[in-house]
Design brief:
Elements lengths: L9 E5 L8 H5 L5 E8 L3 E2 L3 H10 L3 E7 L5 H15 L10 E3 L9 H19 L4 E5 L15 E4 L18 E5 L22 E5 L3 H8 L9 H21 L12 H9 L12 H11 L5 H8 L3 H12 L2
Parallel strand pairs: 1-2, 2-4, 4-5, 5-6, 6-7, 7-8
Antiparallel strand pairs: 1-9, 2-3, 8-9
C-alpha cells in the first residue's frame, strides 16, 4: 500500500482510556479529525463517547464513531450494528463515516465466516446510517477478509515508521492509516507522538489527502456567495412566483366564514388545499385555481353554484371574463 505523504491530514482515535481530553488544545496541535469509540459488542457503551464526540466536534474537528466488533455470527453482527447505530445517533455532528473495528477472532472462525460476519455488520450499518462505513483492521489481520469487502474504505493499523501497510486480498490502498499507538511507530509531522490536550498516549492517524481533501470528502459544502448570473436567475424566479400567486389567488386576508366549512373540509380531504388558513377564502381560491387551469367544466360550475350566493357571484364574475 502507499506510504505517508507530507501535508496529509492528521487525526487521532480515542476512548475512555485517554481520560478527560482538552479538545481545543487537540485542535490547536494540528489534529483535524478524530474517531471516537462508541460501542463494543451488543451492550457496551464507552462512558466517554458523548463527551468526546461532542467535544471534538465543538472544537472544529471532523468526528466519526467506531464500534469494536465481537460477533461470531451474522445475526449477532446485525444486532451489534443496531446497537452501534442507536448509541452513535445520540451524538451531534458526526461527519466522518461510521467505523467497524474488526481485529480479533475470539470465535476461531474461518476466513469465510469472518468475511460473512464483517459483511453482515457493514451492510446493516450502511442501511441504518445511510452511508458506506469504514473497515478498520490490523496489517496482518486484513488478509482474513475476501475481495468482496474491498469496496469499503480501509482504515489500517500498522505501527512502523518506515514501512507502509502490506497489500491485502481486498485492499491495495488505505484511506486512513493508524501509524502509531502513541509509544511506537511513526510520528506526527512535528516529530513527536504526543498530542496537546491528552496526558497519555493516543493513537495517531493519517488521512490519504490534505485537510482540504478531507473536508471536501466528508464536510458539508459551505454556502458560497451567489454569482451575478445566479442572483439574476433568483430575481427572475421570484418574479415568476409572484406572478403565479397573482394568477391563481383572488387575494384577501379574510377569515373564512362558517358557510365555507363544508366545502373547505371536502377540499382538504381531496387534497386540493392543505389548510383553511391559506390566503383569502380557501373555497374561492380553489374555484379560481380550477378556473385558471381550465378545469371549471359545466358539472363543476353547477356543483359550486349550489354552495352560496357569494360563491355563485364569484363564478358568474369569472364567466363574464370569457
Amino acid at each position: 500500500m502507499q506510504g505517508r505523504t507530507k501535508g496529509y491530514a492528521q487525526g487521532i482515535d480515542v476512548s475512555h482510556y485517554q481520560g478527560t481530553i482538552d479538545w481545543p488544545k487537540v485542535a490547536g496541535d494540528g489534529i483535524t479529525f478524530a474517531f471516537v469509540k462508541a460501542t463494543e459488542g451488543e451492550n457496551y457503551k464507552d462512558p466517554t463517547f458523548l463527551q468526546n464526540a461532542n467535544g471534538a466536534a465543538a472544537a472544529g474537528l471532523l468526528v466519526g464513531a467506531y464500534h469494536f466488533l465481537r460477533a461470531t455470527s451474522s445475526a449477532a453482527a446485525k444486532r451489534e450494528a443496531q446497537y452501534f447505530y442507536q448509541t452513535a445517533s445520540q451524538a451531534n455532528n458526526l461527519l466522518l463515516p461510521p467505523v467497524m473495528d474488526y481485529e480479533t477472532n475470539s470465535g476461531n472462525l474461518s476466513d469465510a465466516s469472518m468475511s460473512a460476519v464483517a459483511k453482515a455488520f457493514l451492510e446493516e450499518t450502511e442501511r441504518l446510517f445511510g452511508v458506506k462505513p469504514i473497515f478498520y483492521t490490523g496489517n496482518a489481520f486484513a488478509n482474513h477478509f475476501d475481495t468482496s469487502l474491498g469496496t469499503y474504505p480501509l482504515w489500517i493499523a500498522r505501527y512502523n515508521a518506515s514501512s507502509p501497510p502490506d497489500d491485502a486480498k481486498a485492499w491495495t490502498r488505505w484511506t486512513f492509516w493508524q501509524y502509531s499507538d502513541g509509544s511506537s511507530g511513526g510520528t506526527l509531522p512535528s516529530g513527536t507522538r504526543k498530542v496537546s490536550g491528552i496526558s497519555g498516549n493516543v493513537d495517531l492517524n493519517e488521512y490519504a489527502g490534505t485537510e482540504d481533501d478531507l473536508l471536501r470528502a466528508y464536510a458539508p459544502e459551505e454556502d458560497k456567495p451567489m454569482t451575478e448570473a445566479e442572483k439574476q436567475q433568483m430575481e427572475e424566479l421570484q418574479q415568476r412566483i409572484a406572478a403565479l400567486e397573482t394568477h391563481v389567488n383572488i387575494s384577501g386576508n379574510q377569515t373564512p366564514p362558517d358557510w365555507t366549512k363544508t366545502s373547505t373540509s371536502a377540499a382538504m380531504k381531496a387534497g386540493i388545499i392543505t389548510s383553511v388558513n391559506d390566503k383569502g377564502m380557501p373555497e374561492f381560491i380553489t374555484i379560481q385555481m380550477l378556473y385558471n387551469a381550465g378545469l371549471c367544466n359545466a358539472e363543476l360550475i353547477k356543483f359550486f353554484k349550489e354552495f352560496s350566493a357569494d360563491t355563485r357571484k364569484a363564478i358568474e364574475d369569472l364567466l363574464k371574463k370569457k
